[in-house]
Amino acid sequence: MRTFVIVGRPNVGKSTLFNRLCGKEIALTYREPGVTRDPLSVRVRFGGKPAVLIDTGGVAFSREEKERPLTDLTLATLRQASDLLLVLDGRSGLTPLDWEIAGVLRKLGKKVWVIANKIDQEELDSLAGELSELGLGEPIPISAAHNRGIRPLREKLTGEDPVPASPRVPEEPARRLALLGRPNVGKSTLVNALIGQSRLLVAPEPGTTHDAIDIELEWRKKRFLLIDTAGLAPRHKQREGLASKTAGRSLHALARAHLVILVLDSHSGITRQDKKIAGWIQRIGRPCVIAWNKCDLLPQPTEGRRTEALLAKAVKSELPFLSFAPVVPLSARDGTNLDRLLETSLRVDEQAGQAVSTGALNRFFQKAQRRLPPPGSGGRRLKIYYAVNEAPRDSAAASPFRLRLFVNDPRLLVASYERFLEAQIRKEFPLLGRPVHWSWKKAEGSVPSEKRPLPSQRRKKFSS
Question: Binding residue per annotation — 15?
Answer without folding.
Answer: yes
